[in-house]
Queue: 2 jobs
Job 1
Amino acid sequence: VKPSRQAPQLLDLSAEARSRAAVESARGRNRISAKLIQAVFGLGIATAAVAVAFLVGALVLQLDGRSPLAAFSAMWQGALGTPLAIGNTMNRAAILLLPAVGFILAYRTGLLNVGAEGHIYVGGAAAAAVALAMGSGVNSLLVIPLALAAAATAGGALSLFSGALKVARKVPEVLSTLMLNFIAIQFVSYLVSTPGLLQEKHVIITQGTGYSTTSRNFPQSSLIPEVARLPRWIEGTSLHIGIFIGVLAALFVIMLLGRTILGFRFRMVGSGITAARQAGVNVNRVILSSMALCGALGGLAGASLVLGDRFRILDGISPGFGYLGILVALMARASPIGAIAAAILFAGMQLGGQVMEAGGHAPQSIVLFVQGLVVVAVASTVELERRWMRRVERQGG
Amino acid sequence: VVDFVNSMIRLSIPLLYLALGEMVSETTGILNLGLEAMLLGSALAATVAASATDSVTIGVATAAAVGALIAFVVAVLVVRLRADQIVVGLAVNIVVLGMTTYLFRAIYEKGFPEVPGMGIARIPGLSKIPFLGPTIFSQRVLFYLLAVIVPGIWWVLYRSPWGLRARASGDAPEAVDAAGIKVETVRIQAVLFCGIMAGLAGAYLLLGETGTFTEGMSGGRGFIAIAAVVFGGWRIFGVVGAALLFGAALTLRFELPALGLNLPNQLLLALPYVVALAAIAVLPQREAAPAALLRPFRRGER
């Protein structure tokens, strides 16, 4: 059976690899070993891509008259050099991992949901709204789950809207999710700069000796109460349970796709809408559920950002974490386990990049450049993998 | 009204260049999501070249060349290496965002450069016509160039052999291949054209409008242009109309407050995206998209 023409190309290769794995198992060979080959190959490509991207980055720094070695060792220090740095990196990894697994879930359903940035914004705003509304007189065990649920609902609803536009009006979800990112960012900006909505009440800035005070309104909400902040795991570091939520989400997506009927339907729609419809799958419902779940995961990233890191929602709270999360998913070639590793890598590069810039070694923007290159490099190996897989099959068969 | 139409046309020009280039690229089956990257890269190139040589023409030419260069990389990746078009687009956008931010700071550590501006060229005689004069005939040269480009694209796409190949590459690449024409060559040419157009858009944006480069200044214009292609139904006059409509939405941001309408600034900033989304959603459903859009071509396979 040939996959549908609309089958997403990035996965085309792993779908192909999977079908080869199935062929091999039918021949009585070990199915696990075929999967293993695929995983090792993916890891090899990712490692090579990272190496190439870092080399290009080093070349740029060298040409600019800087020391790549000093820059990258500063980056390493900032990423994983101290317990404090590790904690920060893991917290950031959570924010990249959640949208990444959301993207993967939608991707496996054949959908390109690039709305993670918007999901983060509305999710963060919803979490902050719940935390602020409930105040400090409630139990953490009540307010945190409620805030997380609100964030997931908000992100899910935004994404569901794109799904509905696709189902009802055939609007390509790539476009609608992109447009909604910009709209969501402005919507949250409106919420946090409008008194009576989410804007912080009278900020008083005391200047000098305290005689002159001015009141100014920033586009941000008040700080959320202590009870609503994500619990820290290790005293003295900032490590909170965000990364735990992220890894759980990755496992959830693996189980959902691999072990449940709903997940099976997702994958059926992903490998061909016509075939799925003829097999009796309610394609529209599957698209809507997949979009909603994807948005919910992105919303949780917003909650992790608000409840774990910034303790408030503010204008411009995410400088593109959603897009970076999608890059994480693409680097991992839509594998949730791979996404965990890729999220930690990208988070470390980002935070390490800040240290690198602060130390005067190199501008942080080089990090973005290298991260993009990693994904370009991974994406450019499609043909390579096809040929390689063919050779494996010839030798095996 | 004169002011409104004038600034609507002004703000539509980058969108027109972007959307027309994208339309040609999509016609051959390549969705180029890297428009943002091309816009940013060429805007920086225009800054550097124009300020170094104090020549607008060299700035525009360099911008077009850089747009083509980025397009060449994208074309090799998606056409030759058959990488996923959306993935490459998203990644290239990030690469160029990082690169331009880096370069801009590295080159101009000591302060912003003096960039020569693209002057307004009033057409003698015609610019005296009431209404049409101050709106259509008082624009920058790159606008008048569109008067050549739009019919040119129409002629090439619908009346020339290359156009037939291009349209067939997007709808039935197998047939093109069977006719002995290289689909890959046609697609690469189309993406390169798209890059040049995006480069001109970047040059206009910088030399004609803003005058200074800022990080991430493309600000989603590339995505709006892609929406214009969809809303325009992949047809040249539809795409031109859509770009003008979205340009009008951009203009409202400045015009509504001037009319005394007190709307939240955020609503005005989101307006172009709301209009674009609504436009596509209310679009009558028709199958106008090139059949092979997003599908890489491999010989001997369907």
Job 2
Amino acid sequence: MAGKTRYPTGVRPLLIEEAARRRRIEGHFVAELERAGFAEVVLPIIDYAEPYAQIVSADTARQSYRFIDREGDLVAVRSDFTPMVARALAPAIGPSDLPLRVFYRGDVIRCEASRLGANRELFQIGAEIIGDPSPEADVAILEIAAGLPAAFDVRPLVVYNDTAIVSRLLSAFGEPVRSALVTKRLGSLDRARIDAPAFALIERLAGGFASLADVAAWGPLADRAAHLEEIARRLDPATFSLHLDDIEDGFDYYTGIRFRVYDGESRARIAQGGRYDDLYARFGTPAAAIGLTFTIDDLQERRAGAPPAAIGSPGQSLSEVTR
Amino acid sequence: MSLRIAVPKGRLQDNVLAVFSDAGYDVPTESEIRSRRLVFHRDGVEWIVVKDCDVPVYVEHGAADAGVAGLDQILEHGCSAYQPVEMPFGRCRMMLIGAPEAARLADERNAKVATKYPRITRQYLESRGLRAEVIPLGGSVELAAVLNLTSHVVDLVETGETVRIHRLVVEDTVAEISPRLIVGRGIYRTERARMRELIARVETTLSARTAAFLGRKG
């Protein structure tokens, strides 16, 4: 008998019921995406690390499994589909191909050993609209993100923001702005170095009560405020919520809209996405792009429910405590 | 769904509960906390009292919506929660400290750093371009330098008394540490109004305390 009875941290087999459940979700997602005009691309599970070196953050790079292959090249196991889609498509597309709708599916492998209960092998389905920088494309992806899980008894809540707000504030006033906005404390900011409309915006973002009018009041962000207003006007506020004060620690390749999809009941995150208008240019073909990714296991676990397990207090289960 | 708040056991516990109490929350009593119960339900809030190092873990993974944790634990766990309020108590410094006979870390040929904070220590060494072997320890970290297990330690310093008694040498401040109210990103996104209310109540309480303190001094 084999010595090791368990699997490595973060991976596990899906047996008959779970496998069937995953395939049902996958089948529904693929059918819906094809109906919406998306065509499938299939990507390799490994690739050289070098083409992505300037694109992903050090933290993201650390999450990927890397090894030296027999030819002596540094190779990484797929940990993020989006840059791989750009690398694959950029050399193959021309202006007449755009806008282009594609989708992909498969596993990504991430080394997140310190994350409690985090899977290392994640089955994802994602979709992108390439070559369309308009608010209409943003709205289309956001509506797909909310629409796909609705068939699985999920009341989606989509929270979105625009990474350009913080990135332009950072460009103008430096790193302390990020710290102030992420921690939501302004103590480290040098007020004398920041013009009044920008400081008012930072103060209101940190305080959680910024409006699009505050964003528009700082000249360099007027165009983003108009873009966000256009998007918000087209979306149902019961499902889509603009959170200007939802500040990212890092952007990786995102340049515009950034969103997450939550199960409105359990509050678990089930999908995410955003706009990355500079990514394709890094692989030789300038093209705006926006996409989304569902991690199917997250949705699957939401739907499967967790069996209760006693942890000491009568009547109290592990799932109650850990929600 | 009720709000779940994680309170750190130990030296911060009483101060933290007092802040929430002053903010109008019905908090569990000391005798209740000493019992073996795990969760305390009060007026729409579930209180859990956990080790201070575990607060960021509970909040990061959504098992608690908010909590109070020291910046040392927040950084060590790579916790991405928002930190909207800094508490005025329990402040200290995380410092790089050398053994009595050790050279400065940059000059030490066989530098070893003992610490309860291996992640922060590695980031600090990397940011300063320093090379040293990091030795994770569970407690009494200064002892490692006193007994020459390592040339240096990275640890919290409150009064500096231990450093003085053992003739250890403070080399650098790694970080200014303070306890913070932390709020999980997921809950902040999905229950923003409730979380803003929590933050505002704690902020208002601390501002009122500061004003009262300054009034007494004036």
